[in-house]
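Email to the structure team, subject: S41 family peptidase model.

Hi all, the expression group asked for a predicted structure before they design truncation constructs. Nothing fancy, just the tokens so they can compare against earlier work. One-line instruction: predict S41 family peptidase, return tokens.
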Amino acid sequence: MKTLFCSILVLMLLVSCNSVKKYNEQTSSLHAVEDLRSDVDKVYNQLKRHHPKLYQYTSKEDLDFKFDSLKTSIKSPINSREFYKKLSPVVRFVRQGHISVGSVNKRFTRKERKLLKKKKFQFYDLDFEYLNQKLWVTNVREEDSTLVGCEVFKIEDDLATDLVKLYKKRFASDGYNQTLYNRYVGKGFPYFYYKDKGFLDSLTLTFKLKDSLFNRTFKRIPKDKEQVKSAKKRKLTKIEKKNNRIAAKEKHKNDRKYGFIKKDKSYTRNFKFLEVDPTVGYMKIKAFGNRNYKKFYKESFAKLDSAKTKNLILDLRDNVGGRISEVDYLYAYLTDKNYKLIEESEVVNRLPYLSFLMSDASPNALKIVSGLFSPFIVIHNLIKTKKRDGRFYYNLRFSKEKAPKSMHYSGNLYVLINGNSFSASSLISTHLKTNKRVVFVGEETGGAYNGCVAGIYKIYEMPTSKLKIRMGLMQVETSYKQNPDGYGVKPDVKILPTIKDRNLKKDPELEWVLANIKKKKNS
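Reply from the structure team: attached below.
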């Protein structure tokens, strides 16, 4: 039995290694023109089959022309990464922000992955922002903080501004909105660079500070925790061990409640009373979807109620979305009327969840489980999906009318937004925009006022290039609409930060709100 088990394990490792080798060879080799054109046809057919609002912002005639032109432009064999650079700007013209095309990257064997986990790439410790048509370093984690406030002039031989212009053509906002591009390309610059260049062991950047240029090389280095592990640890006393267990348990609770972000050791959900005025509450939500959120909102709004807070600032800047369930829970604390968060979601067929679970790129284990439970999934989908006027609509639980929370907030509300306020952030912003007591400050949201196609997703892997495309399957929208379609929630007070603000650690949007509250208080 032991021999059989070892034989199976060795066989699995060999298959895995061969699979990795085969994938790397296929994605790095040159593909025949006709095979790549076939990939173009297949991905466009997938969009037509599964996307409920494919022609919402770009007409069928225009989109047909874009995909036909792409096929014509492929005149010689190219590899998968070069194909990604051709395909992604075309898919962008669907103008639906939740559609994304993934690049191909080198895969590693289990042994190689184990070794890589012991290292970190210093380049990923940098946070970037694109302001005033330039790329800046706004934060550095665990490395040289003197880089903060420096302009990124070049990366290897490429001008940073040229790379930004290129990357902005490889993803879409919702509709015709423009504010998402500068925000998203800045925050996600390392991700876009990786998709463009692939796996790297080192990278040289040229920085500009005032009028001088200097270079810095970033490498893959051992993680600090590996060095800490190698150091000899002091033996703890029983009391110290007990205190450590209590502290670890408390930290685990807080990590769940506030949504701990391991990357930068911060929290997704934050609440405090501002020291400048204890009657002002400040709630910063970085995303909707990390850990357990209910306890956080219950405690926060209980504090607001107890303090009889008259002014609340809800900061949704750089919140790119997440779970509708969290948005629904939060909004119930911000309204004093019965509400329906979203309308029934338009889908292309009566079995949307089966399309989601049985995606081409879904893990085989998920497909097997989904296959076993498919009779129940089918029955559930058929009950929840209705046909009206020749279209299918899925009834999510968020499309039912609900009452506000008993301890809902009814004071003045200021909402801070920017181009990175996307998806679920735009959804709650649309609802709040209809309330006269709410003042929006910042810039137009990157997500559309009139909704988006998201909810659940299908991932399709192209047979030749192995590129993957992700597309939403449900139209998610409120009952509120604005004309013209294709734009975000616009601020009542438009304020755009500058690099000078960042260097001086100023927050112009927040400062305006506090000044406005003070002005109203004194008048």
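The longest strand covers residues 212-222. The chain is about 40% helix and 20% strand. Ping us if the truncation boundaries need rechecking.
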